[in-house]
Amino acid sequence: MYFSPGQLLIDSFAVPGSPNSGLDAPQVVGISCPVAHTLCRAMLGQVVQRMHALLLAHLQRFTFSQTGALRLKHDVSEYSGAVRGMGGGEEALETELKAMVSILIISPASLLGVVDGSLRMSHKDALRFIQLREDFKTARVGGKSLATIFASE
Length: 153
Hints:
Blueprint: E1 9-14, E2 27-32, H1 38-59, H2 66-86, H3 91-105, H4 108-116, H5 123-130, E3 140-141, E4 144-145, H6 146-150
Antiparallel strand pairs: 1-2, 3-4
Organism: Tetraselmis chuii
GO cellular component, one term: exocyst
GO biological process, one term: exocytosis
């Protein structure tokens, strides 16, 4: 069975722009394909994985305050909904993004418990995201910096 582009269902819809942006509403494209087309599903999976990698690389260029992290949480929810709408549901990727956002939002004193408890994330992986916090260099828990706490497994 060969795949032809005519088998893709492409739908675009307007998304309201930011009230302060002064820009017209951008067009968002929704892509779906019949379940029977394995090649189409594989292509959508690759698109989702590459979008996820690009998004993570982009986010790791910034530092986030708690307010910024709350805005990011909303954006990640919207992104996750769009990805699910495309049919490329990679739950592990979505879980990683949500873990990153939760690490950015919670208080420094709660970080160790959340990372070791509900997230079950290695300290090395957690440190990648903790370094994005605005308070990373200044926050102390029990007299230790966040870098010191998460430097060891």
